[in-house]
C-alpha cells in the first residue's frame, strides 16, 4: 500500500504542477482579452478530482484488497499514458491550455498534436486516469463513481467550451 500511496501522491503532485501552469496561462489569456466561461462547474470539477485521489487511498486502505499484478501493472501503464497524453495536450496548446475555460477572442483553434486526432484529447486522459488510477489497487467503487460523475461533468464542460470557442470566433486554423 505504501507504493500505491506514493503513486497517488505523485499524481497529486502532477495536478499541482498543472495548477501552476494553469495560473500562469490564466494571466497570459486575461492580459490578451480572454474571457472565462463555466465558472459554475469549476468548483465541482476541482472537488471531483480531489475526491478521486482521496477515494483511491480510502478505498484501497479500508477494503484491504490485495494488489492483483496483471490488473495493477496494466493500470499503471494506463496512468502513465494518461499523464503523457495530458502533457502532450498542455505542450500543444501552450499558453492556451488551462483548467478553466478561458478563450482569447480571435485566436484560431489548435489542430496540431493530439488535436489532429480528437477534439478534446485532454478529457480522454482524464477519463483514462479516473478509471486506471483506482484500479491499480482494486478501488473499483472509486473508479465507477468517478467515471459516472465525470461523464456528467464532462457533458457540461464540453458544451461550455464549445460555446465559448464559438462565441470567441475560434475556427479551425
Topology, please?
Layout: H1 2-31, E1 35-37, H2 42-63, H3 69-93, E2 101-103, H4 121-135, H5 140-167
Helix pairs in contact: 1-2, 2-4, 2-5, 3-4, 4-5
Q: How would you describe what is shown here?
A:
The structure is a single chain. This protein has 173 residues and is mainly alpha-helical. 69% of the residues lie in helices and 3% in strands. The chain has 5 helices and 2 strands, in the order αβααβαα. The chain has a two-stranded antiparallel sheet with strand order 1-2. α2 runs antiparallel to α5. The longest helix is centred in the N-terminal third of the chain and has 30 residues. The chain is elongated.
**Biggest beta sheet attributes:** 2 strands, antiparallel
Strand content: under 5%
Instruction: For the record, give the distance between the C-alpha atoms at the N and C termini, rounded to a whole number.
Output: 47 Å
Morphology call? elongated
Please state the average pLDDT score.
94
Low-confidence stretches: none
Protein structure class: mainly alpha
Amino acid at each position: 500500500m505504501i507504493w500505491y500511496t506514493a503513486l497517488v501522491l505523485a499524481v497529486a503532485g502532477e495536478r499541482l504542477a498543472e495548477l501552476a501552469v494553469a495560473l500562469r496561462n490564466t494571466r497570459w489569456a486575461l492580459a490578451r482579452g480572454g474571457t472565462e466561461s463555466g465558472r459554475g462547474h469549476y468548483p465541482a470539477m476541482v472537488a471531483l478530482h480531489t475526491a478521486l485521489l482521496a477515494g483511491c487511498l480510502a478505498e484501497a486502505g479500508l477494503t484491504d484488497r490485495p494488489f492483483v499484478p496483471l490488473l495493477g501493472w496494466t493500470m499503471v501503464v494506463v496512468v502513465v499514458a494518461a499523464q503523457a497524453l495530458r502533457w502532450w495536450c498542455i505542450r500543444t496548446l501552450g499558453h492556451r491550455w488551462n483548467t478553466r475555460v478561458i478563450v482569447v477572442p480571435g485566436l484560431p483553434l489548435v489542430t496540431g498534436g493530439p488535436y489532429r486526432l480528437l477534439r478534446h484529447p485532454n478529457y480522454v486522459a482524464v477519463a483514462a486516469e479516473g478509471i486506471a488510477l483506482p484500479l491499480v489497487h482494486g478501488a473499483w467503487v472509486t473508479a465507477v463513481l468517478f467515471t459516472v460523475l465525470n461523464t456528467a461533468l464532462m457533458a457540461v464542460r464540453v458544451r461550455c467550451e464549445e460555446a465559448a470557442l464559438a462565441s470567441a470566433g475560434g475556427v479551425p486554423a
